[in-house]
Amino acid sequence: MAENSIDFSLQLTMSDEGSDFRLDVSACLPGRGISAIFGASGSGKTTLLRCIAGLQPVDAGRVSVNGEVWQDDRFYLPTHRRPLGYVFQEASLFSHLSVAGNLDYAIRRADQACMGTDLAEAVDLLGLAPLMKRRPDELSGGERQRVAIARALLIRPKLLLMDEPLASLDQARKQEILPYLERLRHELAMPVLYVSHSRDEVARLADHLLMIEAGRVVANGTLVELLGRVDLPLTPGEPRGVVLEGKVAERDQAWQLSRVAVDGGDLWIRDNGDECGASVRLHVHASDVSIALTPQRDSSILNSLRVRVSTITPDPGQMALCLVQLALGENYLLARITRRSAQQLGLAQGQMVWAQIKSVALVY
User: Fold this and answer.
1) Spatial separation of the C-alpha atoms in residues 335 and 285, rounded to whole Å
2) C-alpha of 188 from chain center
3) Are 269 and 133 in the same domain?
4) In this structure, are 144 and 274 located in the same domain?
């Protein structure tokens, strides 16, 4: 049992309308940062979170958080004594209290012996200063969720659980709250388990990824490592893509562009104001990567990188397409191209080619 990790092994069988669901999950996750629990609807993500919280009885289980045992074969810490914060899909604020009153409720419940976020920090972190006198019915969905997150932080938990906190929000409200969640990743020392079925959301927020399918772990590793693989399940409708981490190496004021150095090469992106030396995170969709056998000098595409073909795999559900995994230093890119294109180019494992990247999203 590691001192700086979240360790759990949980087994549970549930019956619903004549069908059984079996959860059998064992994993060790980092003791700080955001670990995303990712999978399709019905894969067991929320059930796993409820088991870790002690809200769902299990057939057999063990949970420890940074060396502190919450349950095992001989010991069980009830939910109300577990030092955790829980953010649900719906904010569930006290409707009769203002934002300030909801936060004060959390402060009065906090374990003062624990180090954690104080009121001023929470208000600043989640941009709540203009909202403190409002009641929940005067807030947007995104504002309510920001208050719910602040309330969870103010009880000074040792673990923060977030169960698809953006699922009930429309796209505009999601874009409103995502920058605040990104700040949590940069500024919080506590571990966060973040349930989601959105690859784009996970790419923006997570450091580590636990992928679940039908109640079992199919992959457990860093975000950069797992998103670069082609053999892992994909939520229907979700785009394939990878995350690259790098540093701003140059800013071209004339063209409003920044050059980001990543392992294996450099990428030009739109200048977002980050200073040279700043760490950034880039999201590259497979549909935005094309392949050429030689460098293209007469193209509008700025980013062209020398890469090696690692694998070529049929794209599940897309008979005309294939996924090409391209090694870039210690990183990988993915390209989604037609099978005909792959044949015409004569692509083969180990071949050196040029990856042309049409668009790069900066996600921090």
Assistant:
1) 8
2) 15
3) no
4) no
